[in-house]
What does this fold into?
Amino acid sequence: MNLTVNGIAREIESAPLTTLLDVLREELGVTSPKVGCEQGGCGSCTVLVDGEPQRACLTAVAAVEGAEVTTVEGIGTADSLSAVQQAFTHHYAAQCGFCTSGMMLAAEAYVQRGGTDDREAIQEALAGHVCRCTGYVKIIDAVAAVARGEEFDITVTAASPGMTNLGGVQ
Amino acid sequence: MKAVGARLPRYDGIEHVTGRTQYVDDVKVPGTLWTKALRSPHHSASFSGLDTSRAEAMPGVHAVITWEDVPLLEYGHLSALGIPADEPLLAKDEVRYKGQPIALVAAEDEDTAQAAVEAIGIEFEERTPLLDIRRAFDEDAPKIHQWGNWYPHFEGEMDRRQIRKGSIEQAFEQADTIVQGVYRPAAIEHVPLETQVSLVVPEANGRLTIYSCTQALYFSMGVVAAHLNVPLNKLKVVGGTVGGGFGGKVDTATETMCALLAQKSGRPVKWRWTREEEFLCSSTRAPWHMEIADAVTKDGWILGRKMLTLHDSGAYARFSPYGLTKHSFHHTGAYTIPNLEFDGFVVFTNRVPTTAMRGFGVTSVSFATETHMSRIAHVLGLDPYEVRLKNANRIGDTSPNRIVYTDPSTVPVVKALAGGMGVELAPDYAAMDREQRTGDLLPEHLVGQLADPEDH
Amino acid sequence: MTKATEVISPTSADEAASLFGDGSGVTVIAGGTIVVPDITYGRVAPGKALLLGGAGLDTLDAAGSTVTVGAGLPVQRLSELAEDVEALAECALNVADYEVRRQGTVGGNVCAGAAGDAPRGDLQGPFLALDATARSAGAGGERSEPLEEFLAHRKDRLLLDLTFEKPAASAFASLDYPHTHAYTVLAVTGVRAADGTVRLAATGLAGHGARLRAAEAAADADAAGAAAVGDVTLGDDALASAWYRERALPVLVRRVLAKLGEAA
It folds into this structure.
């Protein structure tokens, strides 16, 4: 069957009832969606399917034949971070980072469908996403900032995307 | 000091938001085998007839291990702190908690591994489990551990953590009231988003590369080396980003088993726990049972404290004696109590062994002591801030284990708390500081501990 | 895990009904939010899987006084009925979270069995209170029957749609765990029909959802609350005990009746 993943058309060999999560991670080597619970309870596997956030662990790949799947790798790169990615960096919304992929895609979809900086609305939109590290406040701060259209200066050195620039301290 | 007070980017910030942070399960090595475990379905049972032959013969199965495959079956993870070994890596002859691993299978895929586990023969004879720490001391309690039902190897082969200070009898005689309380926090699961996982790769040079989610890389390396009976230089442990640990990823829960399977099969082996295994079989923060009886005066001085702590260690000791030891030093909380009788026991039950979790050993006693301070205020009809402020640790006071406080922060913290809550303290309390006790702040019962900390 | 499965994806309701046959040997996958984890954890090993996503069952017709909800409609879309049937929308939005609601279907929810050790099928409550008619396919062909009767053999039928008359007023009250996508412990829905009749139904019971007929017949809210306990069988499960539910049920009944009383 066929699937477009982050803009690239792929032909899927896995059995039709393989979860989209396993297809992405094991067959296609796209590892940003995580295996947290495999029962739709934690949100760390969320991807965008035709722009809408969906749990990849609950999705049989045959059910999304022909769809456009977007993961974190498809919303921005170190040289060109999306607003959500910048906001999460600026607001320290990630600690261990395991929930981050799912959180950001849910946030991305929320903002795309016109979500505001109302904190309750943000919590409702991200309600399916568990974070054990941050206590959620900074995540909500980040999403609210994106909803308000804020700009961020995270002073990243493009030449070394793996290491942020300690020399850029103000 | 450029960093203090500055906004610094996280070194892994960009990796996290671009999905490139690598966790163990993201490492893909061709030929990796999938692992499933045969786990005890019973809280307590003996077993016989463990037969892995059918599993081993299944197509797609590359290795099966039981206790017989482990060069050193029992290794005390904290033997450096004097805690002897008591827990087999894989169960031998008996199981002492539901979920205890008995055998592991490494196979081509998850389904095959699971089918092989189900093909392992074993016969259980269930025994009456011990699940309530209070019952551990009963004459007719089931005996569930080779050391007895509670840990007996504290220094001097004591069976408890014991603190004695001053004269508790005198304190109780002089008291106007005895205030009692029982505090029983329950077990707490860590629930890291990333479940327990490791991947072990046998290298051509004879070493094993271990991708581990451990919080304590060198510690886990030592544990694996000990069980496998290999020198440390045979292991290369690759740690990295842990998807949440909180104390639960110090148990070296998967690495040794994967190492044995990798050695036996000659293939890379991964064991990733399901969320169900993580909830049912992983170690938790321990449940505690704490009883406090304080001898108090009607104006709120605490003359003495009697305390009994039972710590639920689960089926094996792991790190519990260490946790209880830390707990014992803090059993007066942020307050100075000169007459003490503390007894703490590490009690075994047929539950998953408990482990560290943020503030290991101390969060329990902080909860109990703070609640108890409020209880004292309530019983005596006094202001809870005032009761705390007069008994607060001050410079020169001594801790339960006779450490002299040089820099205690109780007084400023309690005052800041009152301020933050909009509570106005009475003038003499608002004026209090943490300087060495004098005058009204130095009643008779606190004189000895101040003047003569070693000998009080 | 899924190697030997034959997967069929009908493109119309008729095709779905025909491929379903009498249901034997067929695993129905609508949204997949319940069945896919069952497959992942080895509780279900489908021989033949019927994927309903493309069968056109995701319809919603609320133009007139009668509403027909397709079994394939995502739970989230019941929010579109907020004005006409407030309780149904409120109940739907109380299920799981936005992502799971968008994927899970009305049919999957209504036909769900108990989840190991917790109740499911929250939507059974509102649809029972609405006295909905269930149209389904299966052995003996297509038939329509009161939802109450359908629920007894929901495992053997392929639900196609639910039909009900728009009520004059509706109300919903639930007992939840704090985390939003934990299961609902207990819930009551009340409906005042156009002719003034009041119907009550509850979920979170020992079996599937049920009408509270003794409560409906009671003289006032307090009597209704007390009578409701006799209308149901309550059980212990991972979420709560029967003892606790017995004390919570009258409270939910009184709340629903109070809200209905206030509604225009």
In short: Chain B is about 25% helix and 20% strand.
